Protein 1
Amino acid sequence: MPTTPAPVISHPAPTAAAPAPSAELSLEERLAFINAAMTVRLDEAALAYEVNTAHIPTEPVDLGDVVTVPLTPALQPPTPYPTPVAAILQRAYRRLLTGGWCSGALVDEDGARCMLGAIRIEARGDGGLEAGAAAVLLDAIRRKFGEGVDSVPSFNDAHRSGRVPMRMLDQAADLADTRGL
């Protein structure tokens, strides 16, 4: 049986040398290239994060729940509202801010008050102003939380902290002032 010779593979010799770098990059050019590369990587990471977390339901954060500032002598109460109902609501807000908030009672053993308790003490026995302030407060609450809110005490007692009830007193004071009450 005749044998066929194995094919010979020849490699051509390189005709030209690899191109040499024309010049070394300056520091500014290297930093610009690294900045561009990092920007691309950060954009890819941000896109991956958005894709990976798109299925997670979230609720918007109200900054009033996050940002709190203690009442210090430098932060004196603002100028009182000129209208009587707005002034009562503003004073009730300040009373809760400085004296404490409670739920389940008009006044607890430590002297903290609920929303209605703060309005009652600031109305100083004027039942008409107290009723007007409570009505504006309930209206402000219903504007924000819907018509399902039965009363100011039930809204107050539905919360575990005083942040939301106190914010609603402040908003009700603005609403009363806008209405001229």
Protein 2
Amino acid sequence: MALELGASSVSLERTPGGRRLVVRRDVAASADIVWDILTDTDCWPDWGPSVTAVETDGRYITEGTTGRVRVAGAVWLPFEVTACAPYRWTWDVARLPATGHFVTERTDGSVVGFEIPPLAAGYAPVCARACRRIAALARDA
């Protein structure tokens, strides 16, 4: 069963990372455009409601990328990208497994989504807002 959260939906699903809440939204842009937005650290503060800055050696992430993100405008947390292959990436933040990010290609665009542990259900509205921002960035790209 899926719950609607604005134009995003939330459902409990089995993912490569285990059982997760999945927040997703249709995007009127190709999967390549959305993937570029998701993996470009310069874009993270534009779409991530909790991310205000990123420091890393490379602009685009790959598996093993490390750095730090500033959240809530004040706290810097270390991160490591634990998996990154077209069209899905995961990371640890402060050495804890965090959200998974994915894009699914469709004939009329794509779907962007986030995978979050069920115990972090309160984070679903934040992910829905991120989906909305990504859709807008992709539309303008």
Protein 3
Amino acid sequence: MPTTPAPVISHPAPTAAAPAPSAELSLEERLAFINAAMTVRLDEAALAYEVNTAHIPTEPVDLGDVVSVPLTPTLQPPTPYPTPVAAVLQRAHHRLLTGGWCSGALVDEDGARCMLGAIRIEARGDSGLEAGAAAVLLDAIRRKFGDVDSVPSFNDAHRSGRVPMRMLDQAADLADTRGF
């Protein structure tokens, strides 16, 4: 029996090489790729930060405590409120702003005043006006901070005058709104 030759399988030789990468990327394309990569990295870092700090208790920050303007004695008082109690509170705010704030005394050795001391001097001896201003101020404080015993205890509970001065300003707005 004759033997038949084994079939020959031929593999075609590769005729084309892998496609060459296109020309170099343009600046806009490179910036887009880098932007996408950085966004991914920033998202991962933000997530890692959230996970790593989730156990730390924090208190919300009041922007009024952070944002401030330089205080100088040459500040001009604003246009006074037309109502008497609001005008006293506004002048007391301005006095603390320019003359200084203190705690633990109506007036300290440098002439700085507490909230009640500023109201007292700005009421100019009118005890009814002083009492009305203190009552509106205490109401404004209680609206924001809950049950507070008195204006002096609120004043003395702070280490700086930012919050007390802000409350005087808010109380002046409240008094004007109420027509006092």
Protein 4
Amino acid sequence: MLSTFKWPLAVTAVALIGAFILGGPAAFALVAILCVLEISLSFDNAVVNATILERMNAAWQRIFLTVGILIAVFGMRLVFPLLIVGITASLNPVEAVRLALEGGSVETPGTYAHLLHDAHPAIAAFGGMFLLMLFLDFVFEDREIAWLAWLERPLARIGKLDQLAVVVAMAALVIVAETLAKDPATVLVSGTLGVMTYVLVGGLGDLFEEAGAAEEDGEGPNEVQLAAGKAGFFLFLYLEVLDASFSFDGVIGAFAITQNIFIIAVGLGVGAIYIRSLTVYLVRKGTLNEYVHLEHGAMWAIGALATILLVSIKHEVPEIVTGLVGVGFIGAAFVTSILRNRRDIGDPAESAEAVPADA
């Protein structure tokens, strides 16, 4: 564990010391709070990332920990908010940076924080629909092991209808746009782009994975490596979009704590590094194979997060609620996994069925 988390610990020390030197105790406290916020909101992200990362070879896992961290820290926590403000407010990059450096309250019209808050419906629609598609694809698939069997089994049966996830997601988007959005057209467009991104990136990843498997059965090693490289690239891209969807609520919620974009980027960035290291730790230790309900719990947490993002188009949802919901699902899945493992030790011949919901 120490070898996995040595870099996050070192980065944390540098970030906190730098914040204290440059901004004093106040900056130190803000960076620490934002780091905890990001970690608490993203446990389910780490579990889901692990299910995807274990399908990638060691080279792509290293890229996830290096290039992926740069994208997560600087791209999603610093550049992306600037880009959103620039696009939605029709500002050039220099003007967007100037507003960000000026700071200002969310309640003050024309400030960077206020403009980013105004862009929240479009951001929430995109991220919410992307995560909702991920959740629906999971619960509509028939699996050998279930967690909430009384609910997951019926959902898997109706999920045999082709493209049901897309139908349900688009129906939900229309309802949200018509009932919660001040600007239904913007929400519809952003949500549709979220669905399209999920289908396109996930589909390309699956396509090249299948191509790689086919070539491995009957072709030479160079072609296998090329197919694996393409599959790895699209899985990596899928992971980055997934991380972006998870980070939306954290980035926007951080402005309730501070309006300093550099403190936000540092605090959330340090948290993101921990999440990536936790993802690798879960893969290397085979935790998902040992605690088989963790993936289920994470997916239900994603379904809850998608719902929260869509509801937040109109209603403010405290970050603590989002964090507690995710931790609650993960914790419950962890407990039922332990109970299942103990039951199987006591009765090795028993079939691999899910622990009943009241276990």
